[in-house]
Amino acid sequence: TQVPYTEWTIEQLHNGLIYRTPVPDKEKFAELAIDGGLLAFIEDQDLINDADIKVRLHRVKILESIKKLSI
After folding, report:
1. Whole-structure pTM value
2. Cβ neighbours for 21, distance < 8 A, ≥ 6 positions apart
């Protein structure tokens, strides 16, 4: 049985989503303790200010990947 993404641990998030997206500093998500519960609430400004992802196209790809998870 697959665990819903909203219940992913920090490690599951890192291995499942972050590993496959253009996050320049993949460890930053772990450092910020972002897990599946927080993932649903991440917005563009969070990626800019907290995760330090400056490239807009990278942020778009990450946010689109999150949207696909919730389908």
Report:
1. 0.80
2. 58, 61, 62, 65
